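> call design_seq(struct)
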């Protein structure tokens, strides 16, 4: 008997599979699609600046959270692939970060991470459709490209809708182009020349401080031609300047402003009629942040022949207006044991008699400081707000002079002689970026922005013996001025609700109209002609009727190019406008200067 042995043939092992078949990718597609759709929609719609800021931080965080939940709970993706994908997204982002321009820092988590998650999702589709063998190597390459592109870019700030200006990182910045042009000039103004010039004095028609003598945005006692089609403003000069959000002041034929020039924070004097540089005072200091860029934010103040200036890092200077020679200097951040605000010091100094008052901030009780104008000696320190981008201003309420400041602790009033607190009104909103100036109405009422949340409010201020009391008359959210200031004229308030000009009834707070999409610009008032002078965020200058019945645009001038947040000035028949890149002067047709009371 023969036995035939049968040997079992070895079976081919089945390929490893993940339970349930290929991964479902539609949740990831939905998540990244919703994110980018929201990105586009938020860029297009009108919205408060703070909402845009919150969205830019919250949307990427929510995307990361939901995507991570889907990724780590998706059992159809091999666990090893989940580990590899997660590590590649994180590690490549960490490796690229040190190679990026400093302006990109905020963009890596808010744009770079969503882009990496989008690329990861698209790559999984490619692998699924093509059966690409080297899927992990391919993922490494595409993620490296998506992260690496950020190392080639530079963000040159953002507008008030947080829409960024993106350039190749190797292209020169406007500041670098300005400095290069300055280096090639042969007639550069001296730095603090000998004080041989006669002291400057204030004369009618001068513009000595931020938003005018009373900081209310009124350009008084003048009339101009309003038909800009037949009599347009005539350009006298235009030139590059160093970055800053300071406005200008004009004393006679001298114009003063602040600029950043490399590592030097400067106070600069120009000949107002020609733009010729007269002198420069410098301090070694530089403030920069990603949204607003570099440079000072505050406007100089003129008083008694002297200029008082506050830099973005807190350097308070007193210099001779005729020559630029320094008299004294303090660092208000040091004096108040504070740190500069997130967007830098923007508070313009206020001169009252023989004192200069300036906001210093900080968490202590020395938020508002006063110094002697002649010596710089500290006079008093008062408790006000911890954060503010507004400027102190002098007002007379109930027959008494008061120094007002709007900040994150509401509207504060102190005695300008002693610093003694008089009253405080409004919600405490720690860290709220309150910026706009308050307006006094009929000597007893105050209109101010964001007294209770977003919006504008009217408060009635009364005195009972030695006690002051402020009570709310109305509050509205139909005007949300954010950082553009507003004006009050003939029983109405004119200002910006986000990016659109609007008018409120002063008695009730009800909105009369909303029209004119000018971006977050600035508005001034020519009361003799019931006329608004508006500078749009894109640099156009507009004449708009101060008419409570309807919005009427009377004239438009493309004065500047680029983001313009600086306040305009009219002095001695000339219009001065500037932004972070250039400054221009225009002669106004039909200009007449009237004597007060004429």
């Amino acid at each position: 008997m023969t036995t035939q042995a049968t040997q079992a043939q070895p079976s081919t092992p089945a390929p490893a599979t993940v339970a349930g078949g290929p991964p479902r990718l539609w949740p990831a597609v939905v998540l990244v699609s919703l994110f980018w759709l929201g990105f586009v929609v938020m860029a297009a719609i009108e919205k408060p600046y703070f909402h845009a800021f919150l969205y830019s931080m919250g949307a990427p965080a929510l995307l990361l959270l939901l995507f991570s939940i889907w990724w780590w709970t998706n059992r159809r993706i091999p666990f090893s692939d989940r580990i590899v994908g997660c590590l590649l997204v994180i590690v490549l982002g960490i490796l690229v970060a040190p190679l990026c321009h400093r302006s990109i820092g905020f963009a890596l988590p808010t744009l770079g991470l969503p882009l990496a998650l989008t690329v990861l999702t698209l790559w999984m589709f490619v692998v699924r459709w093509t059966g690409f063998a080297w899927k992990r190597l391919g993922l490494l390459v595409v993620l490296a490209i998506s992260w690496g592109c950020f190392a080639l870019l530079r963000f040159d700030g953002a507008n008030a809708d947080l829409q960024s200006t993106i350039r190749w990182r190797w292209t020169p910045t406007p500041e670098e182009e300005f400095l290069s042009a300055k280096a090639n000039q042969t007639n550069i103004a001296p730095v603090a020349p000998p004080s041989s010039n006669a002291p400057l004095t204030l004369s009618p028609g001068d513009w000595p401080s931020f938003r005018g003598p009373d900081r209310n945005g009124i350009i008084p006692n003048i009339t101009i031609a309003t038909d800009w089609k037949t009599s347009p403003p005539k350009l006298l000069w235009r030139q590059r300047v160093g970055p800053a959000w300071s406005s200008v002041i004009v004393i006679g034929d001298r114009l003063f402003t602040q600029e950043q020039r490399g590592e030097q924070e400067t106070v600069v004097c120009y000949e107002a009629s020609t733009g010729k540089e007269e002198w420069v005072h410098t301090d070694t200091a530089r403030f920069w942040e990603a949204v607003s860029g570099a440079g000072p934010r505050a406007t100089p103040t003129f008083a008694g022949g002297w200029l008082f200036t506050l830099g973005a890092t807190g350097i308070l200077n007193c210099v001779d207006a005729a020559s630029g020679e320094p008299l004294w200097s303090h660092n208000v951040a040091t004096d108040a044991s504070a740190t500069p605000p997130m967007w830098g010091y923007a508070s313009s100094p206020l001169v009252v008699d023989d004192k200069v008052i300036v906001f210093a901030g900080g968490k202590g009780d020395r938020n508002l400081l006063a110094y002697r104008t002649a010596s710089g000696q500290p006079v008093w320190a008062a408790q006000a707000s911890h954060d503010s981008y507004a400027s102190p201003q002098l007002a007379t309420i109930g027959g008494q002079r008061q120094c007002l400041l709007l900040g994150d602790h509401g509207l504060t009033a102190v005695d300008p002689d002693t610093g003694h607190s008089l009253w405080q009104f409004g919600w405490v909103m720690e860290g709220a970026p309150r910026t706009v100036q308050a307006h006094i109405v009929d000597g007893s009422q105050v209109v101010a922005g964001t007294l209770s949340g977003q919006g504008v409010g009217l408060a009635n201020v009364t005195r009972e013996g030695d006690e002051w009391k402020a009570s709310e008359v109305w509050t509205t959210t139909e005007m949300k001025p954010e950082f553009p200031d507003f004006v009050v004229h003939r029983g109405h308030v004119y200002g910006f609700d986000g990016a659109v000009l609007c008018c409120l009834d002063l008695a009730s707070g009800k909105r009369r109209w909303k029209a004119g999409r000018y971006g977050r610009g600035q508005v001034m008032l020519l009361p003799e002609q019931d006329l608004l002078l508006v500078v749009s965020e894109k640099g156009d200058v507009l004449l708009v009727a101060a008419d409570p019945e309807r919005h009427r645009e009377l004239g438009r001038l493309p004065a500047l190019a680029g983001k313009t947040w600086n306040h305009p000035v009219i002095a001695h028949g000339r219009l001065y406008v500037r932004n972070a890149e250039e400054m221009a002067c225009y002669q106004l047709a039909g200009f007449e200067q009237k004597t007060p009371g004429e």
